[in-house]
Amino acid sequence: MLVPGANAADTGPATSSKLPSATKVFKSPEERYIAGLECLKKADTPCAQVALAGINPASPYAKILEAQIAAGGQDYDTVLRLLIPLQAEENLLPAALASLHATLALAYENQGNTLRAVEQRSQADAYLQTPETRAANQKQLIDSLIALPKNALLEIRGESADTAVQGWIDLALAIAHSGQQSTALAQWRQAYPDHQADEAALGAQSAPASTNALAQTLTGKVALLLPIGTPAFAFAAEAVRSGFIAAQKAANSPAEVAIYTTYGRKDEIAAIYRQAVAEGAQYAVGPLTRGEVAGLLEPELISVPTIALNVLDEQSATPAKLVQFGLPVEEEAMQLAKIARAQGMQTAVIAAANTPLGKRMAQAFASEWTEQGGLVVLQVEFNEQSNLLGFKTQLASERADMIFLAANAEQARWIRPYMNQAIPTFALSHIYDGNPANPDNSVLNAIHFVDMPWLLNPDDPSYSAYRASSSELPPNAQRWFAVGVDAWNILSALAVKSAEKMQLRGLTGTIMLDGNHIQRELPLAQFRGDGVALE
Q: Does an H or E element contain 366, and which?
C-alpha cells in the first residue's frame, strides 16, 4: 500500500469523466485530483505528479495530492504542514476529504500519536462511500486502539471531548480488556446506539482467538516437544498437550501433530529438535522448561517457526524464528505495578515469601514500581519460622497506600491474618488456586490480583469450544491447558499472517506479538465472599 490515504478514498461509482484516459483532457482541479488519486492507487507516483502539476498550487486539491505523494515518501512533516490548515474544509469531493483525513491519520500514527490518528480516521469514515473502504478504515482504527494497554486507553479517553472518538476507545476496551466480551459489546452498543462503527467490519475483532482472522486453519506437521515422561513436569506437559489438541480440533485443522518426548535437560534438547525437523516438522512448539528453552539458543539451531513454552530472563540473542511464550511472574509484576500507579497509589509495602519465587516477584514489582515513580517504604520477607506477631507489628509501623503480597496461595492464606486488611492489597496470579469454590480462599477476601481470563471468567461464550476438553482437568492444570490453546493460536497466526505485529484475545490474556516478542495483558480481579470477580 503506497499511500493509505489514497487507498482509503473510494471515489464512488466511477464515470468516464473521472478516470484517467489517454485522450481525456482534464480541466477542473477536481478531475485532475481524481486522476492523480487513481495513479496513487496503482503505485504510479510519476503519473500522480503529472496530475499535480496541472492543478493551481493554491487549490486544496493540489495540497491534498501533494501531501499524499509526500506520505508515499514517508515525508510526514510535509503532510502535516499541508493538511492541518485544511481540516475545516467541507466543500470538497468526498474522496478528497477522505484522503485528507486518512493521510493525516497516517502522519500522526508515524509520530506515535494514537489519539490524533483515531480522530482523523473517525472523520475520514464519514466520507467513505463503499462498505469495503469503510471496513478497511475502521479495522485500521480499532487495530491501533486494541494494541494499547488498558491504562493507555483510559488516559487518551480522558483527553478527548469527541463523543465518536470516546465511543471508539470504549469499543476497544470492550473488545480487548473486558472479562466477558459478548456482554461488554452489548453494553457498548446500548451506550452508543448511533455510533458509526460497522458491526460487519468489526466482527473479526470481536471473535474468539481460535476463529478470528489471525488464526486461520494451520496445515503441515507440528512437532510438540514436551516432557511428558518426566515425573516432575508430566502434569503440566499433559495439560499443555490437551489444550493444544483442543485448539487444533476447534480450528478443524488437518495438521499433523507429532509428540516428541523431552526430559527437562538443556544439553539434550538440540538433538531432539533436530530430529523433529529432520522428520519433516514444519513448526515446533516447546520445550517447556527454562533450561530446555536456553538449549534452543544454540547458534543456527532454529530452522522452522518455533513457540517455546517458557521465557528466559535474557532475550537479546533470541533467534528470529523463535518466540518465547510463557507465564513469567516478572511480566505480571510489572503490569500490576502500572495498574496500582494508575489507580493513584504512591507508596507501597512489599511482603514477600522467603522463597526464590517470592523474591523474583518482589524484585520485579519493586523495579517497575520505582520506575513508575512509586516509593517502597518497607520490604519484608516471611516464612513458616517467622515471628508472625513481629511481622504484623512491622507492617503496622509503616503507613502506605498499598501492600504487594508476593506469595502463592498457600503462603498467602497463612500470612493474610497478620496483615492490615484496611490497606489495599495486591498480588499476582500465583495467589489463586483456580478453584472459585475453595472455602480456604475466604481468608483472601478483598485482595486484588491479576490472572488469566480462562480462570477468571470461564463462562465466556468465546471459550465454549474448549470446555469439554478441559472439564476433567483439575483446577491447577487449567493454566497449562490455556497455555496449550494459546500456543496453537499463536502458531496459527504466525503461519498465516506476514505482519510483524498482531494481537490475539487468548485464554491466558490479551496477547500482543511484535516480531518475536510476546506481551500478555491480564485482567484485574478480586477475591470476594462468593469466589473471585473481575474488576
A: helix 356-371
Separation between Cα atoms, residue 347 and residue 496, nearest integer Å: 46
All three cell numbers of 306: 518455533
Fold classification of 4-202 is: 1.25.40
- CB-based contact 68:99 (threshold 8 Å): yes
Q: Residue 226's CB: how many other CB atoms inside 10 A?
A: 27
The 8-class DSSP code of residue 87 comes to: T
Give me the residue spans of the domains in the chain.
4-202, 221-327+460-503, 330-451
The grid coordinates of residue 269 equal: 534438547
Compute the average pLDDT of residues 401-407.
Answer: 97
Contacts of 383 (CB under 8 A, 6+ apart): 353, 354, 355
**Three-state secondary structure call for residue 114:** helix
In this predicted model, what pLDDT tens digit does every residue of 355-384 receive, in sequence order?
A: 999 999 999 999 999 999 999 999 999 998
Kindly state the cell numbers that stand for 98. 477522505
Q: 287 preceded by cis ω (within 30°)?
A: yes
What does the pLDDT look like over 209-236, one tens digit per residue? 433 434 457 889 999 999 998 999 999 9
**Domain 330-451 sits in CATH 3.40.50.2300:** yes
**397 is written with which cell numbers?**
509501623
Look up cell 507440528; give the residue: 222
Beta strand 256-261 with 283-285 is unpaired
Question: Looking at the domain covering 221-327+460-503, what would its CATH class be?
Answer: alpha beta
Closest C-alpha to 73, from 102, 101, 110:
110
